[in-house]
């Protein structure tokens, strides 16, 4: 039933309480609504100030929008550096999380400055480049490229881990060539011209890395070749990548002899691969012995090597939260450290395959 009378609670009228109830006041000075003419006759009203205030509000909104869209080189920022991951959740249920959201919120931009986390982040960038690039949102893809640029600049300045970044850029460029194979076949978020430009930037980075010339230090102090042979071999045994051992063997004739040590390559094979994998790829030398060096490189082409990192992301099984160990998170478990498990880059990717 429609209400035909005027609602006494509406603005524009003032009421007075009396013994007989509420009555409308006839005093126009007590009216709550200011007449429209008073605005027109008011001399202090300044239209220019009003326009300026409106303009400031619009600029403030634009700056916030630019920050969220990551148009600048600033990484997408979130106050919390941990994220909740629930495999059973969806967009309609609490706890839904995407790979792009986790990539933005776990502060990888600062992690690359930490020596313990650098290799972990680079490996994660490589895995995303190979298979999960299309799973990232537009903001996450921009953030990915910004972090990649910081990684390249760090390597150019420090002249370390050059081969590692070359492999990352090669994987990314190969994936983009497959995705940007015609305008109609591009499945990446954004304009295809933007991605073509990014491919040109990647080629420029590759050229910069190829032009690096490592400068020999000026100091003439104690070097690796000045150490006893047993210590040089002990240092070689600490290397987890066979390509590093081969590169080190090219420094001097003595190191070349040590880099061919059978026991060194045997330990390396057993560290990275299982006995079953080794038995399937046996290679004999001319003298009838197992050629562990050739077996290592053959096994590396067939199976993934064991990965080693100074620091990794942690996953709390009790709270279902992903975080860096140093940042921690508000855990509700009685034994928080007992519920923490290290998350490898492959495990990180699998957490978001719902």
Question: Gist?
Answer:
The chain is of the alpha+beta class and 354 residues long. Helices cover 49% and strands 6% of the residues.
Can you walk through the features of this model?
This protein has 354 residues and is α+β, with helices and mostly antiparallel strands. The protein is built from 15 helices and 6 strands. A 4-stranded antiparallel beta sheet has the order 3-5-4-6.
Helix percent reads 40-55%
Number of strands: 6
Given helix and strand content, the structural type is alpha+beta
Overall radius of gyration: 32 Å
Helices, by number, come to 15
| Strand residues, percent | 5-15%
The largest β sheet comes out as:
4 strands, antiparallel
Strands ordered across the widest β-sheet: 3-5-4-6
């Amino acid at each position: 039933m429609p209400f035909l009378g005027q609602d006494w609670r509406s603005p524009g009228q003032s009421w007075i309480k009396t013994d007989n109830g509420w009555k409308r006041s006839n005093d126009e000075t007590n009216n709550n609504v200011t007449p429209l003419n008073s605005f027109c006759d008011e001399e202090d009203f300044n239209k220019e100030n009003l326009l300026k205030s409106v303009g400031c509000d619009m600029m403030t909104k634009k700056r916030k929008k630019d920050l969220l869209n990551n148009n600048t080189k600033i990484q997408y920022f979130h106050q919390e550096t941990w994220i909740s991951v629930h495999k059973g959740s969806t967009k309609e249920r609490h706890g839904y999380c995407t790979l792009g959201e986790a990539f933005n919120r776990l502060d990888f931009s600062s992690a690359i400055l930490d020596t313990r986390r650098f290799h972990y982040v680079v490996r994660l960038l490589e895995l995303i480049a190979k298979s999960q690039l299309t799973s990232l949102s537009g903001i996450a893809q921009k953030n990915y490229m910004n972090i990649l640029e910081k990684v390249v600049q760090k390597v150019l300045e420090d002249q370390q881990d050059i081969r590692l970044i070359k492999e990352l850029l090669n994987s990314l460029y190969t994936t983009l060539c497959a995705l940007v194979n015609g305008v109609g076949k591009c499945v990446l978020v954004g304009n295809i011209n933007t991605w073509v430009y990014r491919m040109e930037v990647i080629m420029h980075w590759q050229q910069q890395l190829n032009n690096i010339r490592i400068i020999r230090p000026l100091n003439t102090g104690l070097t690796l070749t000045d150490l006893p042979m047993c210590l040089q071999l002990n240092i070689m045994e600490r290397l987890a990548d066979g390509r590093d051992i081969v590169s080190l063997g090219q420094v001097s004739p003595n190191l070349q002899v040590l880099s061919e040590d059978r026991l060194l390559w045997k330990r390396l094979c057993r560290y990275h691969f299982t006995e079953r994998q080794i038995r399937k790829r046996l290679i004999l030398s001319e003298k009838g012995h197992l050629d562990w060096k050739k077996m290592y490189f053959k096994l590396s082409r067939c199976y993934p090597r064991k990965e080693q990192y100074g620091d990794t992301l942690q996953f709390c099984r009790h709270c279902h939260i992903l975080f860096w160990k140093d940042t921690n998170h508000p855990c509700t478990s009685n034994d928080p450290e007992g519920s923490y498990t290290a998350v490898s880059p492959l495990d990180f990717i699998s957490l978001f395959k719902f």
